[in-house]
Amino acid sequence: MPMTRLRNAGGLGLLAAVGLAPLGYHLTSLSTMSGPTAVVTGALVPVACSALVVAATVPVARSPLSPAYTLRVTGWSALGALTLGAVMLLFVTYEMSQGPPPERPFVVIVGAASVGSVFGLAFGLTDARQQHTQDQLERSNDQLTVLNRVLRHNIRNAMTVVSGRVELLNERADGGDESAAVVEENVDRLLTVSEHARHIGAVIGSDGADEDVETVVDLVEVVDSVIERLQAEHPDAEFDAPAAESCRVRAHPLTEVVTSEMIENAVVHNDGDAPQVTVSVWRVGNHAALRVADDGPGLPKETVETLRRGYETSMRHTDGLGLWLIQWVVDQSGADLVFEPTAEGQVVAILFDPIKEMKGVPVREGIVENDDGD
Q1: Count of domains forming the chain
Q2: Residue 137 in 3-state DSSP?
Q3: Helix spans in 176-281 (H)
C-alpha cells in the first residue's frame, strides 16, 4: 500500500505538472502582450486550459479512478499536449521557411500544448473509465466463477452425504444417532455456504457502485463482539482479546463478518484439543493491523496462491467461500490481506488504511513481532 500511495501521488504530481509548466510560462508572457485579441488567444485561453488540467487533479484523486488509473489519465493528458504542440511546431517551422516568422512563435507552440493537454485529459478520463469498467467486469466474472464452482461442488458433495445417511436411517434401526449427526453436520455446512454466498452477493453487488460502500468500524469493538460469541460456541478454545481501547478505520460494513470468519477458521481447522487463538489490533507503520495468530497448521501454500491469483481452476482451488469472502471484503475496504507462518502456527492479518482514530493501540514493526502477546 505505501508503494500504491507513492505511485498515485507521483501520477497526480505529473498531471499537475502538465498544467503548471505551461501555466507559469503563459502568466509570465502575459505582460509582454498588447491588444485584446493577442491577450485572449495567446494567454487567457491557454491559461484557462492549463489551470483546468491542474484543477482536475482534485476530482481525479477523489474518483474511483485513483490510484489505479491516475498514471493512465496523466499519460493521455501529456500525450495530448505533446501531440498538439508538435503539430504547431511543424506549422511554425513551415511558416518560417516561407517568409517572416510569426509573432511570438514559442507562445503559439506552448499555447497549443496547453489546449492539447485538455483534449488529452478528456480522452484519458474516458479511456480510464472504460478500462475501470472492464476491469470490474473481469473481476466480477472471476468472483462469479468461484461462486459457481464452490456452490456446485460443496452443495453436490454435502447433499450426496445427506442422501446416503437418510437411506441408512431408513434401512437400519441401529446407528441412527450417528447418521443423524452426520446429516446435521452437512446441513450446517450447506447453511454456512448459503450464508457466505449471501454476503458475497452483497460484496459483488456493491462493486463499481457510485455510492461509498465503506463505513467507520471500530476494530476493537468488532473483535470483542466476535470473541464473546465464539467463546460460547467453542468452549474448549482459548481466545486472547486485544489490549487496545479503540481503533477506528474506514472499512466495508461486512468487516465484522470477515473478522468472525478469520477467528473461527483458526479454531475449527485446528486439530488440537484446546486451540489457542490470539487476536490483536496493532499499529504497523501507517496501517491498523487486525491480526489473528493461532497454533494450528495454517493455510496450505496452494490456497494462499489461489487467493492472491483471484480465481480458481480445477487443479487449484480453495475448500469453500469463507476465504474468498475475506479476500473480497478486504479488497473492497482498500486493505491488504497478509499470511505469515510462525514457529507456533500462522498469522493472518488485515492491514487497514486510513486510520480514523486510535486509543491505546500498541505499535509494532511487523505483524509477527512479539507474537506472544500485546
Answers
A1: 3
A2: helix
A3: 176-206, 219-233, 255-268
Radius of gyration of the chain (CA): 29
Residue 75 lies in a domain: yes
pLDDT band at 29 (very low <50, low <70, confident <90, very high): confident
Q: Residues 45, 168: one domain?
A: no
Closest CA to 204 of 328, 96, 349: 328
Summarize pLDDT for 163-179 with one digit per residue, the tens. 677 667 666 655 556 76
Residue 356 lies in a domain: yes
Exposure pattern of 43-79 as b/e (b: 16+ CB <10 Å)? beebbebbbbbbebbeebbeeebbbbbbbbbbbbbbb
Residues 196 and 225 in one domain: no
Closest by Cα among 32, 28, 23, 18 to 104: 32
Neighbours of 34 (CB within 10 A): 8
Rounded distance between C-alpha atoms, residue 174 and residue 292, angstroms: 43
CA distance 218 to 338: 20
Alpha carbons 362 and 374: distance in angstroms, whole number: 7
Q: Are residues 245 and 133 in the same domain?
A: no
Domain shared by 189 and 283, yes or no: no
Report yes or no: 133 and 126 within 8 Å, Cβ to Cβ: no
Are 130 and 178 contained in the same domain? no
For 106, the grid coordinates are: 514559442
Same domain, 113 and 201: no
Q: Supply the range of the domain harboring residue 89.
A: 2-138
Q: Residue 177 in 3-state DSSP?
A: helix
pTM of this structure? 0.56
Least confident piece of the model among 15-29, 56-70, 190-204: 190-204
Residue 253 shares a structural domain with residue 330: yes
Per residue in 95-138, pLDDT tens? 888 877 667 788 888 888 999 999 999 999 999 999 988 888 88
What are the distances in angstroms from CA 105 to CA 91, 96, 100, 151, 256? 10, 10, 11, 68, 63
